[in-house]
């Protein structure tokens, strides 16, 4: 049994603080900047053997259109059995600012409770309370978020199953299965699925791509850079497999950190270290920038599989398409093993091929190679291009065997192998990648020097 509870409210009302307290995690990024949360975050909390799925939401009102509701909050309201409307007590006027959302919840017969986030000036006798009852809200909980530690009373007084008939009905609809798909999983649960992260510069179309693949409005899309601020998870299943898709915040260089919260970038870079396959989204109107190359190298440094998705192809005229495609391919010609897809996330163009590549790249990661095959390839590589002479002596590469998978490590044994020059190592890497038909992933080569029995 799962009870889905969404936490809604105006900007800076304390939603993410409440979300973190109720889930006992520091999952949601909390910031003083109004409107910081831009997407829905889902977390599971088990309390007295009951399962609660909490949803943190962005501000209920759109920041620039104050009377309009945020679509992400509306989705959360529709998905939930219970809604906690957080109101920050600042002034007498604060309730008036919520009249339209209260009317909306009532009109739609939603099971909602008001959580009043108090400050030190609050006086219960003040006619604020009367006003609440006048509006017909009898389900109210007073809490000082900053001072109070006992958030259990929300479970006891509000969410306790006996209070809610909807709890018993919760499994009868498909709300639960869709909410479960969006849960932030713990490490053990996460490792059950191939992890695919969508990475790239701000505004390249990462969230649009995520929504297009999932066929749901999971991530907020907007034309102002820096929309996605936190890491978003969602399970995607096809006939064969379930994948965990991860949308991330747009990556910018360190010196531009001022515009985007540092922890946002840190979270994204940490995600890269844990994933299986990353899709680097490039805006075709901008082309490949230095920053893209930096992040491409960062992904490969951690030996993660990589696919490039050049997005917004619909914005390129037929005449320029060929030229732009050639330019991009040329810029990353060094990384021949990386698959490049030209797509339009908004028009769902090229998505099936991209999904096919994700599947193939992931499968490729799991391939196992025999010592005999690797040694055969090594011999071919040295026959085609001998190792260079160093101080009059030529290195001798004897045999190769796998030294680990995910990332693939090939261990080469031989004489004088430690001093092999970088360009020869790079030649060997490319040769193995080509012969093993590796897609989208790099490999590591380790050398072990055998002792020459004839040396003095
Ligand atoms: N024409 C066109 N526009 C697109 C496409 N994909 C995304 N966009 C637009 O590009 C803008 C940014 O899209 P988002 O999906 O929010 O980009 P993002 O990479 O997630 O941005 P951040 O979260 O800010 O890093 C929005 O206005 C989208 O509508 C596409 O394929 N074609
Ligand atoms: Mg985004």
TrEMBL record:
- The superkingdom of the source organism is Bacteria
Per the UniProt entry, what are the Gene Ontology biological process annotations, in alphabetical order?
ribosome biogenesis
Checking Gene3D superfamilies in the record gives: 3.30.300.20, P-loop containing nucleotide triphosphate hydrolases
**Domain called G: residue spans:** 5-117, 195-312
Q: Which InterPro entries match?
A: GTP-bd, GTPase_Der, KH_dom-like, KH_dom-like_a/b, P-loop_NTPase, Small_GTP-bd
Task: Cite a single Pfam family from the UniProt record.
Answer: KH_dom-like
Which keywords does this chain's UniProt record carry?
Answer: GTP-binding, Nucleotide-binding, Repeat, Ribosome biogenesis
Q: Where is the GTPase Der C-terminal KH-domain-like domain?
A: 368-447
Q: Where does GTP bind?
A: 200-207, 247-251, 311-314
Q: Name one GO molecular function term.
A: GTP binding
Q: Which family does it belong to?
A: Belongs to the TRAFAC class TrmE-Era-EngA-EngB-Septin-like GTPase superfamily. EngA (Der) GTPase family.
**What role does this protein play?**
GTPase that plays an essential role in the late steps of ribosome biogenesis.
Q: Which PANTHER family match?
A: GTPASE DER
Subunit architecture: Associates with the 50S ribosomal subunit.
**What is the name attached to this protein's record?**
GTPase Der
What organism does this protein naturally occur in? Answer: Wigglesworthia glossinidia brevipalpis
Which gene is this protein's source? b2511
């Amino acid at each position: 049994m799962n009870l889905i509870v969404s936490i809604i409210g105006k900007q800076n009302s304390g939603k993410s603080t409440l979300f973190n307290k109720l889930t006992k995690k520091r999952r949601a990024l909390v910031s003083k900047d109004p409107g910081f949360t831009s997407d829905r975050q889902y977390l599971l909390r088990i309390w007295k053997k009951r399962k609660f799925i909490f949803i943190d939401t962005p501000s209920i009102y759109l920041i620039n259109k104050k009377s309009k509701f945020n679509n992400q909050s509306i989705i959360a309201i529709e998905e939930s059995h219970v809604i906690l409307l957080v109101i920050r007590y600042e002034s007498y006027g604060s309730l008036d600012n919520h009249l339209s959302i209260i009317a909306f919840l009532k009109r739609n017969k939603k099971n909602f409770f008001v959580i009043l986030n108090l400050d030190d000036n609050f006086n219960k006798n003040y006619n604020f309370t009367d006003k609440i009852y006048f509006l017909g809200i009898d389900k109210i909980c007073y809490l000082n978020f900053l001072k109070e530690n006992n958030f259990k009373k929300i479970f006891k007084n509000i969410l306790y199953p006996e209070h809610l008939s909807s709890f018993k009905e919760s499994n009868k609809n498909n709300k639960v299965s869709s909410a479960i798909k969006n849960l932030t999983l713990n490490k053990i649960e996460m490792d059950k699925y191939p992890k695919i992260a969508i990475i790239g510069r701000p505004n390249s179309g990462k969230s649009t791509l995520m929504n297009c693949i999932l066929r749901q409005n999971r991530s907020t899309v907007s034309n102002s850079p820096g929309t996605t601020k936190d890491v978003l998870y969602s399970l995607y299943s096809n006939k064969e497999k379930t994948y965990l898709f991860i949308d991330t915040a747009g990556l910018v260089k360190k010196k531009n950190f001022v515009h985007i919260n540092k922890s946002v970038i840190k979270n994204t870079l940490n995600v890269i270290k844990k994933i299986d396959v990353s899709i680097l989204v490039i805006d075709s109107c901008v082309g490949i920038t230095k920053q893209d190359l930096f992040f491409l190298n960062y992904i490969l440094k951690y030996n993660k599989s990589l696919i490039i998705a050049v997005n917004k192809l619909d914005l390129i005229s037929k005449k320029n398409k060929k030229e732009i495609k050639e330019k991009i391919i040329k810029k990353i010609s060094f990384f021949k093993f990386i698959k490049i897809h030209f797509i339009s996330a908004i028009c769902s163009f090229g998505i099936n091929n991209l999904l096919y590549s994700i599947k193939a790249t992931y499968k490729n990661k799991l391939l196992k190679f025999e010592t005999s095959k690797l040694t055969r390839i090594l011999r071919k590589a040295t026959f085609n291009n001998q190792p260079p002479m160093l101080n009059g002596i030529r290195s001798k590469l004897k045999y190769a065997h796998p030294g680990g998978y995910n990332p693939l490590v090939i261990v080469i044994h031989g004489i004088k192998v430690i001093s092999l020059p970088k360009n020869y190592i790079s030649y060997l890497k490319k040769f193995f990648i080509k012969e093993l038909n590796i897609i989208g992933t790099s490999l590591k080569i380790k050398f072990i020097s055998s002792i020459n029995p004839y040396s003095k």
